[in-house]
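tool_call predict_complex ligand=zinc ion
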Amino acid sequence: MRVQCYLAALLSIATFALAVPAIDSAVKPNAGLRLIKTSATDQGTWVTEDDKISNYAAKKIAFVDITDIKDPETLARLSSPSADIAPVAAIAYPTTLSHQTEANALIAKTNTNGPQSWLMTLTNFYNRYYRSTYGTQASTWLFNTVKSLTASNPSITVTQFPHSFSQPSIIARIPGTSSNLIIVGGHFDSTGGSSTARGPGADDNGSGVVTILEALRVLSDAKYAPKNTLEFHFYAGEEGGLLGSADVYAQYKSARKNVLAFVNQDMTGYSPSGKISVYNDYVDTSLTAYVRRIVSGYIGSSTSDSCGYACGDHASANANGFPAAYVCDEPDQTSSPYIHSSRDYALDTRAG
Ligand SMILES: [Zn+2]
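tool_result ok
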């Protein structure tokens, strides 16, 4: 299990404490249909909820569900090529590493016992599809697990973030002396390739969830008191078109929250190369350079790739003007062939 590499990166991050055509979403041909976009230039297609999974997610065609996105700036950014999306505010990230002693002491407290056990529970849900009762049950289990893991530090708050569907996202917050936010997150929903299929979602993205949980456990037990406020996000409905993170970052934008960094942790468990992959598109260039610096300082060389439009929750943060980075277990070519299927049940590269 590569989880400890990702934990090292996460915990070291924690120490730092357009003019485009409008999308015609006014005409909705039938109630219940959803408007999705598969590229910056795609004007949008109305599809059923089931089509989103069977005709897109199962075929690994990434999309963003824009039905409920109303903010014109966000829609404009979703219609811009990655290279044309400017950061809203330039943030000066550190150019050298610091706090290594604190970070290494925290990293030494990590182990894989919790992650293995939590992953077993997550994959034992029939699926974690965001519109299924299993998906709701998985959200409730995760909420209770996050609360119990953080009980060692009463200053940590854990809340459910409701959506229009019955699977809330979950947010844990370690207050800092500043309200500026550093966010680590990943989605906990899964899909097996149809709305009714078995979807264990081990690599995608049980692995990212348990990585984040272990980082949160260690920081909670250490009573870690950051300068910046740290948040740990577990997003619902990512496989339905980035739904959970779209709602969260739309709310953060309208509340004018000052997000200094968001690192998306989507797939950390299947890695033939054994190297962390830091992705280059629909992310903030400066933050991504800083993440690379952290990986190189704590773990070693990284790989890189681009994953295209709407490939994960970092795209929601990016669309709402927040600086995001994306770390993954592999470049696209060598990533798990089992995701979005009933076979995403093991993290060993020989799975299947
Ligand atoms: Zn995923």
